[in-house]
Specification:
binds manganese (II) ion; about 325 residues; Arginase, Chain A; about 20% strand; two-stranded antiparallel sheet; 8-stranded parallel beta sheet
Amino acid sequence: MTRPEEGPTGPIGPIDATRTPRYGGAATFARLPRTDQVTDVDVAVVGVPFDTGVSYRPGARFGPAHVRESSRLLRPYNPAQDVEPFALQQVADAGDIDCNPFDIGEAVRAVERGADALTGAGARLLTIGGDHTIALPLLRSVHRRHGPVAVVHFDAHLDTWDTYFGAAYTHGTPFRRASEEGLIDREASMHVGIRGPLYSRRDLTDDTELGFAAVTCPEVESDGLAGAIERIRARVGDRPVYVSVDIDVLDPAHAPGTGTPEAGGLTSRELLAMLRAFGDLDLVSADIVEVAPAYDHAQLTGIAAAHVAYELLSAMARRP
Ligand code: MN
Ligand code: MN
């Protein structure tokens, strides 16, 4: 197998696809080198194969492997953002964080420790889940370095519920816990793509009190993409931003492979267009969660998630 493409001085890029076919070899994200094959890492892509926090369909523990497998066709130049994300920064695959599948508390602590270890030398993280529970320990780690951050949370769901079956740490509660712990900037955080039935109107008033504004899917429909992007930028300003993408923000037609699908979501084209506008934001780290390959077809969800990751990496490259 061919080694990753080595520049004379710059970052080491993906394996040369003109010599080793894209479908061959072990899958790292975008066929990039592993973190142990490079010296300085600017962005680490790390998997969290954990789904013990789900409330409906399980299976997101297989998300990291599926997204890596679905990322083989990503190429070095991104014309939509006019940037070479793997040439301007060293991006490398850090493998997976080991998580206890039977003990959510222990898994949450492991994710926080794993994130701290990877960002200790200053790298940014792009995490592939795993269910949305993992956003809480990831935000704890981010907070330790950056203080309260503006969270831009793409999701069909608010994920600011209090408990399920008495459990405080689940995939429906990470942003309530994060707000309670002071991890997020309550003046600057927002949800994008919210839709579908709630338990009651109280869900929305609670959510506002926890510090979130929202661009709902019906508002994307009425105000258009430009309106949605403008509202996100106005809300976060020049603060440090953490982006969390629950793949169920996409319509089930675009991302069937997920645990709690809701009709009437964004198209993958709409989501990618929004992320392409993030190049001038101060992106500190990001995650993509809730990819559950057992319900996927023809890698639709995996490919969408891989391209979401690619646009986020490109946006990070534009503002090192
Ligand atoms: Mn969701
Ligand atoms: Mn979610």
